[in-house]
Design goal:
Layout: E1 8-14, E2 18-25, E3 30-31, E4 36-39, H1 46-60, E5 69-73, E6 77-78, E7 81-82, H2 97-105, E8 109-113, H3 114-125, E9 134-140, E10 144-150, E11 153-155, E12 164-165, E13 168-169, H4 171-174, H5 176-181, H6 186-204, E14 208-212, E15 232-234, H7 241-253
Parallel strand pairs: 1-5, 5-8, 9-14, 14-15
Antiparallel strand pairs: 1-2, 2-3, 2-4, 6-7, 9-10, 10-11, 12-13
Helix pairs in contact: 1-2, 3-7
Length: 254
Amino acid sequence: MARVTRGTGFGVDIGGSGIKGAPVDLGAGAFNADRVRIPTPTPSTPTAVAAVVGEIVAGFGRASGTRPIGVTFPAVIQHGVARTAANVDSSWVDTDIDALMTDRLGRSVHVINDADAAGLAEARFGAARGVRGVVFLATLGTGIGSALLVDGQLVPNTELGHLEIDGKDAESRAADSVRDAEKLTWEQWAKRLQKYFTTVENLFWPDLIVVGGGVSKKSEKFLPLLTLRTPIVPAGLRNDSGIVGAAIAAAELG
């Protein structure tokens, strides 16, 4: 299983509505101070977002530590570069986020897909801690983010929220934003989730499915409605997982 890192790290989670950051106790998977959240600027251009990240990190001063800063971003990330922009401004495509943030912060940065960060955090400190075999995590929000781990090791950039099911992009039918926009009942939404998670089961045969995103706080309303062969549970760290996972990735890979 994955190793445990000690000391203090720092994570920043960039989302469509807010940018959050906090110092993280890497041995406990918990914040060392209250997180700070600033609304994502409009338009959310790379320069504008980098300025907000800089403001958050600077606000913690020495409490931000000396390790590389971990930053999540909702896109495929290859060697620090954003390759997609499914739910963010198109100007991010092919932006070297690592270089952008390193220049803005004046220190080393490690950039990771947001769902991958959540998956790392859940594997170390949350619902998937100690689970061997294949773990699939889905973050249900504006879209569907995914993380795939094997014996605690991350397979990055899986983007399984974009599986084509019945001729449609999965997240266009089953994301939490769709439930809200179409005013679906929990039962109606659960039928869509059933089809999505059954497809994932048949492709990857996971040993555990973890559901994250803000709606995981209401997991009792929809998870019991699903009939799967795989155990499915809500994320343990909830909305803290992105920050914690980013700090872990930066400490170990940055």
